[in-house]
């Protein structure tokens, strides 16, 4: 089994798609339906990668990202968003250590490439 990935997304169907794909490739997957729950799961499971929606209820992905970086300044967080990567929110988050902004939809190949890339980094 490879390392743990946390998927934070308010679309239940999308969470299940990500989970199935990642688990088929031997990744351990934890999920959360909003940013607040995502921060709590990050604290509990210490995943090596967080793939998070930018726009969610209760606590959006950008605020959750900031809280995660306060917990672990080396956390690998990717935001998947419907907004342009050039949106000021995205630019600011990248300045604060966000590793990547990806426009929705996140394709299967991209999802697996990210999971494998950051899994390798942790193993080194």
CATH fold label: Rossmann fold
In the predicted model, the low-confidence regions spanning at least 5 consecutive residues are none
Give the number of helices.
Answer: 5
Shape: globular
What kind of sheet is the major sheet?
5 strands, parallel
Provide the gyration radius in Å: 13 Å
What's the CATH C level?
Alpha Beta
Give the full name of the CATH homologous superfamily. Answer: Response regulator
> How helix-rich are the residues, as a percent range?
40-55%
Structural class: alpha/beta
Give the strand order of the largest sheet, numbering strands 1, 2, ... along the chain: 2-1-3-4-5
List the helices and strands in order.
EHEHEHEHEH
Overall tally of domains: 1
Percentage of residues in strands: 15-25%
What does this entry look like structurally?
There is one protein chain. With 124 residues, this protein is α/β, with parallel strands linked by helices. The relative contact order is 0.18. It starts with a strand and ends with a helix. The chain contains 5 helices and 5 strands. Helix 3 (61-71) links the parallel strand 3 (49-53) and strand 4. It is globular, with a radius of gyration of 13 Å. The chain has helices at residues 12-24, 35-45, 61-71, 88-95, 108-123; strands at 4-8, 28-32, 49-53, 77-81, 100-103.
